[in-house]
């Protein structure tokens, strides 16, 4: 690339280029480089190397005062020109759609990122020098235009992704560290929302830069954009996030509403963060909470355990917000809530489910739903009974996570709905005794600690069942120790009898 007209040095010793460049020539030099970066040929090997080398030489040869100091319309355009160059460099280093899955292309993207990162370090070095030397807002104006593109570049390439390598991640993290140092921010969160109340922060600028690439038609063209948005969103919490709700909510919904499971999960995590960090009043305004509920609950029909695990905790945190608008006057039945709807759907899916990973995911979250509904769980008692008995019968692998969580659910269920438990005494007692016998005689490679935990939880359930049935369990179990030869089973029965007779028991 030829920059002779802009970079010509008339002295024989070719001393310092910064002494020879006029303001207009400097702007022209940056404009030529900007034009070269925008051309498709710039991504080719030789052309790319020449463009980046010329830019690096120009940055090194230009004194900081030429970049950030002076007066006049031409100089005021220099920070904007630098910002445009930074945007072009960030776009140039961004991975393409083909590089999302790795392969041969990702090494080229990482190489470009490392080269661009070094250029950003040079630019930030100039800002640091100007900050230490100049009085006035000139360097701040330059930093304002540079900070957004530099941040997006740093986050794009510092996360462990298919298009990064250890070298590119190292350079990107150096760029991020340098950016925080120049902006005098102690953390990324402080950089985004401001270190104090008087400081505005740069989240608005960054969201503005991301917006063109985050609409429904374009967000998949750059595989890094969703990760940059998600990671940035997670850094901003209460009370700062609410003022950006109109920008972050649509993008999160777009990512969530995708056919790929990994994107659904990423979008749900973004929505969950919004639910946790935006005041309920803001979410209820314009029916946003209902929009969130329908967008998230629709994922319950996708039988992917990772997705279900992301969705259920998010819904549990959304329910209190949705139920703020419900008012029970006490003169009739309590209205059905969104939690009732979701629990009904979960139980419908749990009954026939045979895949262990999904069974564990459902069972893992079931206690929280029983706790959330409390006494109102009686609405779902028949179906819960079938699910609990069915899950207690099935071996769940060495960790026995599903059966342990189902026993925890049963304990909570008996605590919340104890007046309705005695009529189910025989069914629940048979299921618990069968479980105790199965675990005690388990020929599988289940660790002893897991067996002990199962027996402990089952014993606790028997004790609660006895209390809910006014001591009837004790009478039904009275003859078992005389006829049973299994020591573990007998020990469980005796613990129940001891507690029923008033002896202290550490397990309850």
UniProtKB/TrEMBL annotation:
This protein's GO CC annotations: cytosol; nucleus; TTT Hsp90 cochaperone complex
Q: PANTHER family from the entry?
A: TELO2-INTERACTING PROTEIN 2
Please give the residue ranges the record annotates as the region Disordered. 1-22
Q: Which gene encodes it?
A: TTI2
The organism's superkingdom is given as Eukaryota
InterPro entries attached to this UniProt entry? ARM-type_fold, Tti2
Question: What family, per the record?
Answer: Belongs to the TTI2 family.
Task: Write the protein's name.
Answer: TELO2 interacting protein 2
Low complexity composition-biased segments: 12-22
Q: Which SUPFAM superfamilies match?
A: ARM repeat
